[in-house]
Design brief:
179 residues; mainly alpha; 4 helices; elongated
Length: 179
């Protein structure tokens, strides 16, 4: 390997350490703070997740560059690693969506002092029959919003565990086959 190959490899490793690790810690911490109904921390973890998810793309970019430089695209473990990375990236997008939903649900549950979220439009929050619509609609109760947050908490917990497992499999593939 040439000096430039080593530099790209070290950039790949550094990007993995400094983006994937903290990003995984943020997504795995989110369910705890949703359960505690701490909107400030959930909002912070959502922002952190977005930053590190975008930053983790550097890991993929440097990995593709080093693979091209070493002409290793024909190796099956490289294809498996790239595929798993893309699956993890899609899961990160879904996790960020769920973090945003949980954050909005927690904020909506906190907004009124103990009633329902009100709207200026009397028909907003009802379906065509005049019945109250559930879910994200204005007019839902704080308990309904907390239920939404709890559902998102479960989804985030399960997807963050799967994402962490994917990162671990990629790490094992890199260490096992890279040496």
């Amino acid at each position: 390997m040439s000096f430039s190959d080593h530099v790209v490899l070290w950039l790949h490793i550094a990007a993995a350490i400094f983006t994937i690790g903290p990003g995984t810690a943020a997504i795995m911490s989110t369910p705890r703070y949703i359960r505690k109904r701490n909107t400030v921390v959930v909002g912070y973890l959502y922002r952190i997740t977005r930053i590190y998810a975008v930053g983790s793309l550097l890991t993929l970019i440097f990995g593709l560059i080093i693979t091209q430089l070493l002409d290793d695209f024909s190796k099956p473990w490289i294809s498996v690693s790239i595929t798993l990375f893309i699956v993890a990236a899609v899961l990160l997008v879904l996790i960020m969506r769920d973090q945003r939903k949980a954050l909005h649900a927690l904020a909506a549950a906190e907004a009124p002092a103990g009633g329902t979220v009100r709207s200026d439009d009397p028909d907003e929050g009802t379906d065509e029959d005049g019945a109250a619509a559930g879910g994200d609609q204005p007019g839902t109760t704080a308990a309904g919003e907390l239920k939404i947050a709890a559902v998102e908490r479960g989804r985030i917990a399960s997807m963050s565990g799967i994402t962490a497992l994917i990162w671990l499999v990629i790490l094992v593939l890199m260490v096992w086959n890279g040496s």
